[in-house]
Amino acid sequence: MFYMVRFVGMLNWKRGYFQIEAVKKEGGIQMASGDPQRQWFPEMIEALREQWNPEFTWNELVHFTEQLDTTLQGIRKERNLLPPIFYCPACGKHERSKVQRISVNATILAASRFEICSVIEAKELSKRWAKHRKTQNIDRYGRQVGITQDVVLPI
Known about the structure:
Oligomer: single chain
Mean pLDDT: 79
Helix content: 25-40%
Radius of gyration: 18 Å
Strand content: 15-25%
Low-confidence stretches: 1-13, 17-29
Order of helices and strands: EEHHEEHH
Strand order of the largest sheet: 1-2
Number of domains: 2
Shape: globular
């Protein structure tokens, strides 16, 4: 027996609170509409609320982002969420997009989006992150550019 979660209505758009109901499904796995495209699941938002610290060092923020990304990849694997299919107008193919990851800047902006910090604080931190990336020659995930790492993400 499988259960499907169905979106009922939005209670507070900015905070991401929504009303859902569980629906019993016989015979197969059903996923909630929109889940393949979703980056921020409720359990990740909760972790962001509980662990966010505006005084994070860059290394702590990178580590926290990696934890959130690991959680996201685990959710996708556990729920069997494949990346969405897109259509390429140039070649006419339908293909799955690549597995998306969470960048450090996405974590900063999510803190603002879910009202964990103010928009002004997020913009300031985002600008400082961009400057730090440029001076330290690191990518959007906080890794040194030019150093190849074998990263295996669950599909």
